[in-house]
Design brief:
With about 280 residues, the chain is of the alpha+beta class. The protein starts with a helix and ends in a 13-residue tail after the last helix. The strands form two sheets. Strands 1-2-5-4-3-12 form a six-stranded antiparallel beta barrel. Strands 6-7-8-11-10-9 form a six-stranded antiparallel β-barrel. Helix 1 packs across helix 2 and helix 2 crosses helix 3. About 35% of the residues lie in helices and about 30% in strands.
């Protein structure tokens, strides 16, 4: 009781101010119809603002869950597309997907680098989630991002497209000329396409997609032509591509497994690489 009296003695000016303010507001609110309407409108605005703030907060915390659902849906649609699904029959769809040469799944990037000569990124899924070595890795919008190099039970290390050891066959979307795509280790926004003959018509803005790869399905977006220069011997183009994947902002990925990868890899052996280069016998 003594402490309660001390509390009131210490804070009575503040308590008195609050009491008087409440009395003044109550008097104003009941004075006229206009004052009642004004306070009601202000109260509604405050309530609406608080409701909007709480809704935005809820949307923020549910955003990751919604993104994961969307990515899983993307993986499902990609698998259906590669399987050539054209029927609404769920049993028929499942049968076609099971027979598809490509299987898609999703993962979250938990570590990434872009400033080294050999860049890698780590995803939060591994062997227990069906992830395997040499699975292709795409961005959620379908651009080439890398491939799986090594797996543990729960995680996987992926070779980034920004790795000087990475190479991939690429072709122009508007014609059949193809070459080898790789990174020169300089600018993380660009990769280089080589081995395109000088007589091939190339223009800035042309689209380059994947070709002749065991890791990636055909026609997956790699980048667009930014600049064209002749090679040192003058027989081919050296083409600078603006990379389609935004590697500095990579947070989620779509992985793709080619069902016949091991069989073709064992069969081809040293005669085949994942580039468009002619194999050396």
């Amino acid at each position: 009781m003594y402490r309660l009296i001390l509390f009131f003695r210490k804070y009575y000016p503040v308590l008195l101010f609050i009491l008087l303010e409440a009395a003044a507001i109550s008097y104003y609110a009941h004075a006229t119809a206009y004052s009642r309407a004004t306070l009601l409108a202000a109260s509604n605005r405050l309530t609406a603002g608080l409701h909007e703030s709480f809704a935005a907060t809820g949307d923020y915390f549910s955003l990751r869950r919604d993104n994961l659902r969307l990515l899983d849906r993307i993986a499902r649609l990609e698998t259906e597309r590669e399987a050539g699904v054209t029927t609404a029959d769920s049993l028929a769809v499942d049968s076609l997907i099971a027979a598809s040469p490509y299987y898609f799944t999703t993962a979250r990037v938990i570590s990434n680098s872009i400033a080294r000569q050999e860049n890698f990124f780590v995803i939060d899924k591994g062997l227990r989630n069906g992830i395997e070595e040499n699975m292709g890795v795409l961005t959620p919008d379908g651009a080439v991002a890398g491939y799986v190099r090594q797996c543990s039970d729960k995680y996987a290390v992926c070779v980034s497209v920004l790795n000087r050891a990475f190479s991939l066959g690429g072709r122009f979307l508007h014609n059949e000329y193809f070459g080898s795509v790789g990174w020169d280790g300089i600018d993380p926004r660009f990769v280089t396409l080589t081995d395109i003959p000088r007589y091939a018509e190339v223009a800035a803005g042309d689209t380059v997609v994947s070709a002749y790869s065991l890791r990636f399905p055909p026609d997956r977006f790699i980048g667009t032509v930014a600049a064209v220069t002749p090679s040192e011997d003058g027989t081919t183009h050296t083409i600078r591509l603006k990379l389609g994947a935004r590697m500095h902002a990579l947070s989620h990925v779509v992985l793709v497994r080619f069902a016949d990868y091991e069989e073709l890899d064992q069969l081809a052996g040293s005669y085949f690489t994942d580039t468009a280069e002619t194999p050396k016998r």
